[in-house]
Amino acid sequence: MAVCSRLSLLTSLTATCSPRRGWRNLSLFSAPSPSSWSKVVSDAEKIVGYPTSFMSLRCLLSDELSNVAMHVRKLVGTKHPLLNTARGFVYDSKHNLQMRGLVVLLMSKAAGQSGSSSDALLPDMISGIYPSQRSLAEITELIHTAFLVHRGIVNLKEWTFSDGPLKDMQFGNKMAVLSGDFLLANACTGLAQLNNTKVVELVSSAIGDLVQGVYYEHSTCTEEGKVCVASWEEQTFLSHGALLAKSCQAAMELARHDAEAQTLAYEYGKHLALAHKLNSDLQPFLKRGSDPVVFSLDSAPVVFHRLLVGQEIWTRQLQQAQSSTTHTDYTKLWTGIRSGGGVKQAVDLCTQHGNTALEAILRFPPSEARSALENIAGAVTRF
Q1: Residue pair 380/32 in contact by the 8 Å Cβ criterion
Q2: Single pTM value for the model
Q3: Which residues contact 327 (CB under 8 A, 6 or more apart)?
Q4: Distance from first CA to last CA of the chain, Å, rounded?
């Protein structure tokens, strides 16, 4: 009864909210191709033994967070992005699937037992996965969710009356900070309970990478093309790939696999995350719907376009698309970017990272779990 009431509470506070156009997309792991992606995920979840889309709900349904949800209800009627983030916790649509935990579980099952003489000291596997590896998958999701909540903080300098009362937006920012901190604290507690120093170091460094990646997220490339693309990839890895890559490596460490297996798992997670980010960035340029075109000016196709046309032409295109200091005609920009070569370069780089992830996972023994990881890598390179 208590769990049902908490779910009802979370559902009610998110039912009336809708994402604001032009704001940062906070999907948990948005699908590159909804129909095929959902099939790949559904098949993969059967292999690990249970649906992973609500993996972090055990923490989210705690008494402490239920009290937080009561306060967040005050934001209903405003456009604070914390509401949209909260909706993603309980609304499992084809566009919102928590994938990091699922990949960690599949990687754990694909690697299997380490075969070392000390393996007898490990607890028994359940569906081919150690309990500590399942705990790690939950911790990974909690860390990712905590950063999603933190990233939902509104820049009050850009606040307008249509967003809602200023005091409510300030309150929403406080709740985003406190809720994210709460989730991160729970993840760190679970991490300590794994009793593995190397795993703690790996995941802790991934948290540091996330912070650094967000800090440098909107840095401007000023060097020559090669350096700029390398900088973009480095920043994208920090903010989108480090957590998955190091969690996959940590899963191998928990099962006491050797350094080679850990490196392969790391490489798969790294390149899968980069390929997925590129795929996500490309969607506005490959699929044009009825909604107004909105995309990030820091996305991969835009970065490549800027490098191809040069800073002078890019500045002129931006000025032509800006009818005022606060409004940008994204449709006009979209047309110029779409007709250039930046989109093709981003597609090629996405395919390259996807193929590198495939090469890494093919070094593992054939199994259902390995096939699922192959399918996931293939899905993020389809457009």
Answers
A1: yes
A2: 0.78
A3: none
A4: 44
